[in-house]
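Standup notes
- DV: blocked on the single-chain target, sequence here:
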Amino acid sequence: MTDTFPPTARRPAEQALAALGLGAPAPDPADSSPHTFPGGGRWRTEIPSCEGPEALAVVLEEAERLDVPVHRISQGSGVWMLTDAEIAEMVAATDERSIELCLFTGPRGTWDIGGSVRTDSRGAGLRARGHDAVAGCVEDAVRATELGVKCLLVADEGVLWTLHRARTRGLIPADTTLKVSALIGPVNPASYAVYERLGADSINVPSDLTLDHLTGIRRASGAPMDMYIEAPDDLGGYVRMYEVAELIRRGAPIYLKFGLSKAPGIYPYGTHLRTLALDTARERVRRGRLALDLLARHGADGAMAPLGSRLPGLLNRFDLNDEKNED
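- DV (later): unblocked, structure below
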């Protein structure tokens, strides 16, 4: 089992609290995740909610200025909210820097005509309502991959399974990666493992999961995990910067997502939200710098996956033989 806490690492205020008789027990090696990304490395970085070429340019400029390494940049409004030219521009800019670009697929329940998502129970939430919504997601996937996008963000189990089948049959490129949205993120080891088997290459868990929850998940699955170090308000607004080293130790392989609390929502994005989108894009990168500085101060900034790496490694999938027998 790999220990993600190197001997030189320390926890926040460890020495001062020990001197005051308030020291905590040493981390239990049994809690450490045994998993890594292929090729080595236990964590990658992601800047979310980058809604178009202009916001992307701001993120890239700020990342260079603040020396924030970026493995993935994701967008939340959806493929259908971007023109072909805008997608092509974003693909070119990220390809030039070997950064993975991830775009959201298709319609979702919260934008649909159904009223259940606006009830207290939230009904079906972000999932794709009906055949036409699934078709919209697949249309987005085909269009985006034809324009060079290599990562697709999904918020529906059926869409995930459909796109996984599509890439196994060559309808979209076989190396397309599928990322599960935080808006439907699993909250227990069993459901996490099901998402992996349905075709997920990267699974966003809610940011309110405890450290023990992460350890439990890692005992069931080695699929890469995404987690907001700072979550948007509509996902709880949690800020977990001081836990970042422990999140890596328990949750590796993990994408550290630098979100932003106390900021208005920008989905679906348009130029009426331009100033807000650019300001928040810039601040998300700065939040990343703060988290990376914390890791460095605690001696826990090693084991970052190489920049330019994007594939998830060998994962467990449901058997597709039944699908073939239906043909």
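- Follow-up: The chain has a mean pLDDT of 90.
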